[in-house]
Write a structure and sequence with these properties.
The complex is a heterodimer of chains A (354) and B (575). Chain A has 354 residues and is of the alpha+beta class. Chain A contains 8 helices and 11 strands. In chain A, 34% of the residues lie in helices and 12% in strands. Helices cover 58% and strands 7% of the residues of chain B. The chains are: A alpha+beta (354), B mainly alpha (575).
Chain lengths: 354, 575
């Protein structure tokens, strides 16, 4: 294909496209037609209003300057806004912060928008809009350059002697391959090994159930049908790893009519009161939504649904395992107490969990 | 040693003006003249879609600027303290230092709230602009030789952008972000064999631990930005090296670039556009509240709010995790394989990244075209590619919508189980339908282009002949208009050669060639070639009324069907 970039753009005198351009081909059909259409080259330049009308150009000039002045106004507004709202009125802090954010933000908007819009308007209306052509050159080197580069490479490798001295080559490969190991080993102390931590919680026999977040002991007669109580172990307060333990020990307590309790859940329940781990067996979110009518528990993160009447087995969603039950009894003072820890690790699955 | 009495002039004619002296300073010490000569009048083509990448670049710069401001006040520590800052509703609560400092920089630092909101909005726009820019590059075929490496850099940048966004989202240590980290820890736990060890090393012990937020901070403000900055520099360097692609048009070829010079036009336009992007983000930050962490409260593993949503760019992954049923978790031989987490959260994004990285080479297997391409494709002229792209976007959108399935359920009063089941089925059924529909639409648009070239454009002028026949006059296209519709190449399926050689022996590599033939047929079996001059000439032969074209569109069908073509492509308009 011919190099079109050498073809000058058609001048204005030949700008009017022939209305019969399409039909013209038909009349010259006896001449041999090319395989493909040929690139007609750049279209003629159409002058803008500001190119021909000095008044329009002056108007555009004033518009650009006006936008730059708007930016200056914005800068002033920003500084005024900064000092106008000192954020010291504790009673109206949220409102004052809001005003401060709006005024400073609008100031910064005007500052930047004025510069940006002015520059773009200047470029679009007043700067030359003649399309220009630049040649492209392939980034690929010529065959001679390639050969030269290959020769340099070959020469350098030969001078290093790496091919002639396999002992050096092999030990170097070994050394470099092993060198990252210390970096990996050093990262090992970023944390302890899991050990048995994922299997354990601070629930054990005799630990009282207290309400979250008030930490008041939960009495059995407080647990009503159709209600859900969020519970933590009493020994959580003062625990050395408060959030870590809470992330495993959070529990929800519900009451069912005793005849609706699943047979396998009966030994850990008392008077139809059931306690289950609140930590979703899918990804560890708190299973906090309780549908009273259906006795379903729903995880708000990924909608795993657990049926309390089926010992909190999964009936829908991405979780696989039932929520672990916390076996409970009623203590002497009427407060619920755990009779043991969870029978299996609470929370999301992991490989060696089994 | 001799001394020189008089000053020795380096040049015969030293510069006289201030600008001249400054230029001479830079040139004689830094070689600035060479760069200025090559760069100042560099030509860039003009198109609105080229601004998408600019938006991404500029919002990254805005993120760096606003992020630096935030680091002056943010404390990357999860040490628990009793909050006694200026925000009254939180006073007396047990919160982490990270959370307290985030609230304080919002309410105690003038402009702090604005900067936080600028940073968050810029992050959302950065990822969005990156994704839309990627879609533009994909649909116009800008990833073809010589830009494959830049495409790969772009894919890596998009991935890092999502990770960087998630890291930043997690730093305030509020209830929502902590729940997000809980999910991240569950994803790490689900990794076979070493999951629990990786999780303990990452979090410095059990979740949430005290190590992770400070570590994440280093990743968010140092490691990832440094890598991204280096990749962005490489991305832009390659744009300059290859020169920008251009849309097809009269005078635009694979050997030139048509547009406006850097100085002054693009300095003003692109430079001004940076201020416009920054200005609009500042306006959004001033007026639209985002991520009000003081309302969510500090992280606590027990409470959670209904309708928890991640930032938009994590929505598709969240939706994927919501879709996959629990039955994909397997327990055997005393081990647990959490396919329900691994598949949507690890394997799926990994696979998508791999396919995205490999796409330029997959398509080249089908075209067999290893020429350089600097003129972009109109999406309709690559129907299969466009179909595949829309298919991918449909898949993505379904996952993303399912990430908000709880909100859809509560707002539209639909069962959440039904929505989830719909998504499970739709993910398999709808993307192929989207592919077929898109491809058909592209082919139809190509035929319409042919019709316009052959018969001109409708004028709306209706004539009635003496016979009573009604006709609409079609005006022929001018050369420039026509060129846009006929300039492209149309590929034919590759025929890599017979599977057996002349002796009837199965050829080596015949299996791979067979796959390639099938791939190529999948792409190009029904390609519509552009109109040739001969076709146009014959379309005008024998017309009763040259000014009143009345041919039926059926005439178009004779083009692709009757043309006998050999070789893998027709014509060489761009070669």
């Amino acid at each position: 294909m011919s190099d079109l970039t050498n073809r000058p753009a058609p001048g204005p005198q030949e700008s009017a496209p022939s209305p019969a351009a399409g039909g013209a081909l038909a009349t010259t059909a006896e001449a041999p037609l090319p395989e493909r259409f040929e690139d007609p080259g750049l279209p003629p330049h159409r002058p803008r209003l500001a190119d021909t009308d000095p008044a329009a150009a002056r108007r555009a000039e004033r518009q650009v300057a006006g936008l730059f002045v708007l930016s200056i106004v914005g800068t002033v507004l920003t500084i005024v806004g900064y000092f106008a709202f000192p954020l010291e009125d504790a009673a109206n802090l949220q409102l004052e912060t809001r005003y401060s954010t709006i005024v400073i933000g609008l100031g910064i908007f005007l500052t930047l928008f004025g510069i940006g819009a002015g520059a773009v308007h200047w470029a679009k209306v007043l700067m030359p809009d003649h399309e220009e052509i630049e040649e492209r050159h392939s980034v690929e080197s010529t065959p001679e350059q390639k050969a030269e580069a290959a020769e340099l490479l070959r020469e350098g490798v030969a001078e290093s002697g790496i091919a002639r001295r396999p002992l050096i080559r092999n030990t170097l490969v070994g050394a470099v391959a092993l060198a990252p190991l210390p970096a990996v080993v050093l990262l090992k102390d970023t944390g302890p090994n899991p050990g048995t931590a994922l299997y354990e919680s601070i629930w054990s026999s005799g630990v009282r159930l207290v309400k979250d977040p008030s930490l008041a002991p939960l009495r059995a007669d407080e647990v009503q049908l159709g209600s859900i109580t969020h519970v933590v172990p009493e020994n959580l307060e003062g625990s050395e790893h408060y959030l870590e333990e809470k992330a495993k020990a959070a529990v929800i307590v519900m009451r069912l009519p005793p005849e609706e309790v699943a047979p396998e859940a009966v030994p850990g329940s008392v008077d139809g009161i059931l306690a289950y781990s609140k930590i979703c067996t899918h990804m560890g979110c708190p299973v906090a939504l309780y549908e009273q009518q259906t006795e379903h528990l729903l995880c708000p993160c990924h909608q795993s649904t657990f049926d309390v009447r089926q010992n909190c087995a999964v009936i829908f969603g991405p979780a696989k395992r039932a929520l672990p039950q916390l076996p409970i009894a009623i203590g002497d003072d009427g407060v619920l107490v755990a009779t043991d820890g969870f029978a299996e690790p609470p929370g999301p699955s992991f490989w060696e969990r089994g | 040693m001799s001394t020189t009495a008089a000053a020795v002039s380096r040049t015969a004619t030293p510069p006289t003006t201030a600008i001249g002296r400054a230029g001479d300073f830079a040139d004689s010490r830094l070689g600035a003249g060479t760069f200025a000569r090559a760069g100042l009048r560099k030509i860039f083509p003009d198109h609105w879609s080229f601004m998408l990448g600019e938006v991404a670049l500029y919002s990254f710069v805005i993120l760096l600027l606003s992020g630096v401001f935030l680091t002056f006040f943010y404390v990357p520590s999860v040490g628990l303290i009793i909050y006694d800052g200026p925000f009254e509703p939180l006073q007396g609560q047990l919160v982490s230092e990270a959370y307290a400092s985030t609230v304080n920089l919002s309410f105690d630092v003038r402009g702090g709230m604005l900067m936080r909101q600028i940073h968050h909005w810029a992050a959302l726009i950065f990822v969005a602009a990156t994704v839309v820019h990627m879609a533009r590059v994909f649909f116009t075929g800008a990833f073809r030789r010589p830009r494959e490496v830049n495409w790969v850099i772009g894919v890596v940048l998009a991935l890092l952008a999502v990770i960087e966004g998630f890291a930043g989202y997690s730093l305030p240590d509020d209830l929502l972000s902590g729940t997000g980290l809980r999910i991240a820890s569950a994803i790490i736990l689900s990794i076979p064999v070493i999951g629990s060890y990786l999780s303990f090393w990452t979090f410095g012990g059990e979740f949430p631990g005290e190590a992770f937020i400070p570590r994440l901070y280093t990743i968010h403000v140092l490691i990832l930005p440094a890598i991204m900055l280096a990749l962005i520099a490489a991305h832009l360097f390659l744009v300059v090296l290859h020169k920008h692609t251009q849309y097809p048009g009269p005078g635009r070829t694979n050997k030139n670039v048509v547009g406006y010079p850097l100085l002054p036009v693009y300095m003003a336009k692109a430079g001004g556009f940076f201020f416009l992007v920054f200005g609009v983000i500042a306006l959004m930050a001033a007026l639209i509240q985002i991520n009000p962490v003081w309302l969510y409260g500090p992280y606590d593993p027990s409470p959670v709010t209904a309708g928890s949503q991640p930032d938009w760019y994590m929505g598709w992954l969240d939706g994927a995790v919501r879709t996959v049923p629990g039955s994909l978790e397997f327990t055997f031989w005393g081990i647990t394989l959490s396919g329900n987490i691994l598949f949507p959260a690890v394997i799926l994004p990994g696979l998508i990244t791999l396919v995205a990285v490999a796409y330029p080479w997959i398509e080249r297997l089908a075209t067999g075209d290893d020429r350089e391409h600097h003129v972009l494709d109109r999406p309709r002229n690559a129907p299969t590619r466009t179909g595949l792209g829309v298919m991918a976007l449909t898949f993505y959108t379904l996952l993303w919508a399912n990430g908000g399935n709880d909100l859809v359920a509560t707002h539209l009063n639909v069962s959440i189980n039904d929505i989830t089941w719909f998504t499970r089925i739709a993910l398999i059924v709808v993307p192929p339908i989207a592919f077929i529909m898109t491809k058909r639409i592209c082919l139809a648009l190509q035929r319409r282009d042919r019709e316009r070239v052959l018969h001109g454009k409708e004028t709306g002028e209706v004539y009635r002949l003496e016979s009573g026949e009604m006709l609409e006059r079609h005006a022929p296209l001018d050369e420039q208009e026509r060129w846009v519709l006929v300039q492209h190449d149309s590929y034919l399926p590759l025929e890599p050669g017979p599977a057996v050689d002349e002796n009837g022996v199965r050829r080596k590599g015949a299996w791979a060639d067979g796959l390639r033939r099938r791939l190529s047929r999948f792409y190009f079996a029904d390609s519509v070639p552009p109109v040739t001059p001969r076709e146009l000439a014959s379309a005008h032969h024998g017309e009763a009324h040259p000014a009143v074209t009345d041919e039926t569109p059926d005439a178009v069908a004779s083009g692709p069907a009757s043309e006998e073509r050999t070789g893998r492509e027709v014509g060489s308009g761009q070669a």
